[in-house]
Amino acid sequence: MMKKLEDYIRSIPDFPEPGIIFRDVTSVLEDADGFKLAVDTMQKLVEDMEIDAVVGAESRGFIFGAPIAYNMGKPFHLIRKKGKLPCETIEQSYDLEYGSATIEMHKNSIKPGQKVLIVDDLIATGGTTEAMIKLVEQLGGVVAGIVVLIELAGLNGRDKIAGYRLDAAITYEGK
Q1: Predicted confidence (pLDDT) per residue in 90-133, tens digit
Q2: CA-closest candidate to residue 128, choices 83, 159, 93
Q3: Residues identified as active-site
Q4: Which site in 33, 35, 39, 126 is 20 to 30 Å from 6, CA atoms measured?
Q5: Domain boundaries, the chain
Q6: pTM above 0.85, yes or no
């Protein structure tokens, strides 16, 4: 019997703190069938989308974004933590649960008017996703949509990116 995508996600209670259920994607990646199912499912969600490029954030956005870009015959552009890219960059800071972070992408990654698909493993509060949208738009790109493996709906990340198309392969209602 074929397993569902949810069957490959390992749920770890009380990590990183009591009351949190950590949704672990490493269990998906460590199973060839699970990894294939994850990429295929995410790609199927956006197959109707007209795009010119795919972007993903370090590091799990790379893992899911690169094969989707490859399969769709589109370029893949990296969004990395500040200080990791060698050429001229633009940056965007955003708030985390405890503190803040800054991400960057190469200034020449996206051309004005290009339709861009943003890929990540998970959307929780939406801070990282919102920062990725701002980077793409700062370069003149148009965010065609966002696809994630997991949406933690209880953390309301969708609200932070209202007005943008968000597709999730799996949605968990809790936090």
Answers
A1: 999 998 877 899 999 999 999 999 999 999 999 999 999 999 99
A2: 93
A3: 60, 97
A4: 126
A5: 48-172
A6: yes
